[in-house]
Amino acid sequence: MKTLKFLIFFVLALTMSVSSCKKDESNTSTPKDILTSKSWKLSSLKVNGVETIEDCNKDDIMTFAANGTYTTTVGAVTCYSGETNTTGTWSLSTDGKTLTVDGDAYSVVITESKVVATIVIGTETTELTVIPT
């Protein structure tokens, strides 16, 4: 009888430990899910490796809607008089590695904690890093 109880306990314990080790795939987010589920602000802007971000850009907020539109909302610190919010279109490649914004294609790495976008035009390489607000 003790052996039967031990065997039942062992089988239950083994079942529970195996099921608790299973990867929970329902919590995986796609790059598009990450991009559209947050608002983003610029934390770095480098041109040819040199940081060029201005204070007036640091408080602007960008949101990407699932329908392929985006909005940039100007913060309290403006870059010039009369600066207004902007809207446009965006798309993300199927593999999540190319973000096209208003026709400009950026190579991107999208994570929960940041998005790094790089574009090369001529001899100039621009790298933008945005973080969730």
Outline the structure in words.
The structure is a single chain. The protein is α+β, with helices and mostly antiparallel strands and 133 residues long. It has one domain: Beta Barrel (Lipocalin), CATH 2.40.128. 23% of the residues lie in helices and 41% in strands. The chain is built from three helices and nine strands; from the N terminus they run H-H-E-E-H-E-E-E-E-E-E-E. Strands 1-3-4-5-6-7-8-9 form an eight-stranded antiparallel beta barrel. The chain starts with a helix and ends with a strand. Residues 1-24 have low confidence and may be disordered.
Counting DSSP H or I runs of 4 or more residues, the number of helices is 3
Low-pLDDT regions: 1-24
Profile the largest sheet. 8 strands, antiparallel, barrel
Radius of gyration (Å):
23 Å
Question: What is the oligomeric state here?
Answer: single chain
List the helices and strands and how they pair.
Blueprint: H1 2-21, H2 31-36, E1 39-47, E2 50-51, H3 55-58, E3 61-64, E4 69-73, E5 86-92, E6 98-101, E7 104-110, E8 115-121, E9 124-132
Antiparallel strand pairs: 1-2, 1-3, 1-9, 3-4, 4-5, 5-6, 6-7, 7-8, 8-9
Give a short synopsis of this structure:
Helices cover 23% and strands 41% of the residues. With 133 residues, the protein is of the alpha+beta class. An 8-stranded antiparallel barrel has the order 1-3-4-5-6-7-8-9.
